[in-house]
Design goal:
The protein has 140 residues and is mostly helical. It has 5 helices and no strands. The protein has helices spanning 31-38, 49-63, 69-88, 106-113, 124-132. The protein is globular, with a radius of gyration of 17 Å.
């Protein structure tokens, strides 16, 4: 029998901030993504909100369509990785998942362009507090 993939999460008691225009309010990773992460086949990266919108605008200007704020996180990391490769001379194939358009997120883009968005880092103490409530799962 194959091992069951488990999900990385902060649990049901974790409450993210109510307003965050940069998407990604969900605090867990799907079981398949969690398993790939555990096997070190993928990396997880945190990106500040303002940097994601900057990347989204760069992508829109070069590719011709507006991406969802959630997608902008992946775009930011892909751009940063491409810059690192260019500077180091390393050749890589860089893939990211373009998960959606930003047509429903124009208010978030407007907030970014008008300087109303800020970067927000959730307090580490609150993350640790949420982790204490999670059940202990053997083998993970």
């Amino acid at each position: 029998m194959a091992p069951i993939a488990k999900m990385f999460t902060l649990g049901h008691k974790f409450m993210p901030p109510p307003v965050h225009a940069g998407g990604l309010r969900y605090h867990g990773m799907a079981p398949l993504v969690s398993h790939l992460y555990k096997l070190k086949l993928i990396e997880a990266m945190a990106v500040p909100q303002l940097a994601t919108f900057e990347a989204g605008l760069q992508f829109a200007r070069t590719e011709g369509f507006i991406s969802a704020p959630e997608t902008n996180h992946a775009i930011r990391v892909a751009i940063d990785e491409a810059v690192r490769c260019r500077e180091s001379g390393q050749k890589k194939v860089i893939l990211f998942n373009h998960s959606g358009h930003g047509h429903f997120d124009m208010a978030a883009y407007d907030a970014y362009l008008s300087g109303k968005l800020t970067d927000f880092e959730y307090p580490e103490a609150k993350v640790k507090e949420a982790l204490v409530c999670l059940p202990k799962v053997q083998g993970y």
